Amino acid sequence: MWLKELSLTNFRNYTSQTVTFSPKLNIFLGKNAQGKTNFLEAIYFLALTRSHRTRSDKDLIYFNQEQLKLTGHLQRVVGPVNLDISLSSKGRLISVNHLKQGRLSDYIGTMTVVLFAPEDLQLIKGAPSLRRKFIDIDLGQIKPIYLADLSHYNHILKQRNSYLKTVKKLDTDFLAVLDEQLAHYGSRVIQHRLQFVQDLEKAANKHHQIISDGLEKLAITYQSTVTFDTVNDLERSFIQQLANQRQRDLFKKNTGIGPHRDDLNFAINQMEANFGSQGQHRSLILSLKMAEIDLIKQVTGDYPILLLDDVMSELDNHRQTKLLAGIDPEVQTFITTTSLDHLSHLPSDLDIFYIDKGKISKKS
Prior knowledge:
Blueprint: E1 2-11, E2 14-20, E3 25-29, H1 36-48, E4 67-76, E5 79-88, E6 91-96, E7 99-100, H2 104-107, E8 113-116, H3 122-125, H4 128-142, H5 144-166, H6 172-211, E9 218-223, H7 234-244, H8 246-252, E10 263-268, E11 271-272, H9 278-300, E12 305-309, H10 317-326, E13 333-337, E14 350-356, E15 359-362
Parallel strand pairs: 3-13, 3-14, 8-12, 12-13
Antiparallel strand pairs: 1-2, 1-4, 4-5, 5-6, 6-7, 9-10, 10-11, 14-15
């Protein structure tokens, strides 16, 4: 798939702009704080209805305006697709081919993206929530049922935590019902994630061995807070463990186990990646991003759109070469950078744009 055109109205520092793109490589040049990252954020937002940089929707709307709107014209294997998203204080409206979508799971996945930004380097050493977010975004794009199961789980989790915070006289029957529902959807979420991590590890290790010239093997493990022997025992074990730690949950006023507390572990040559060098961390994240592209293509039949936000300067020449060589020519790629000086091995089939104070012009 590739994004043919994007129109922005009142998004970040863009008041009104329409840009058409190359189906191959698109490079956006500009000084810092001119809107390069904002532009990639708009593409990301169009795909996933959320920002990767802020949880506050109002931050996305141009100063003193009440609403933003994004419109994208997408070319997929199945044909052209139009996407629209508008955001205001009343909420967001999303449409596919001018038909309003009531559920996010019916919208997300229509346009798939893989983002590589400098903050992704925190994925290894950062908080577990970053790694859970990584799974949720990737898996949600390729498996709509995962988003539905996760939404159900989060809704019941919110109910359970609210009850734990406010209960004065415990109703064990009511809590048991919540536990059953939580375990049901939580087990489904964990099973989705286990399969995804298994597939991700296989694809990422392949790329990592190429990048490391065969010297390093990458392993990725899903760490569940629910212990179980087989997936067939998962739901039963989940219910039992919720019951076993009920006193803990009542005292802490929250739910101590479940996919909302799970994590990923990365290992290089059987050593935790935490202890690796910066170069190893960069290679690991690079391998993950290339694996994401493989999995999305494998599941959906369409390549995702690749967004590289000011990361080329973070990579040495060896890793730059591996990245650019490892991207299939059919993958539409967007790169933001302050200069072309550090970019090597660029193809001749590309479009270059200049960004200055929220205005985009194409190099002739």
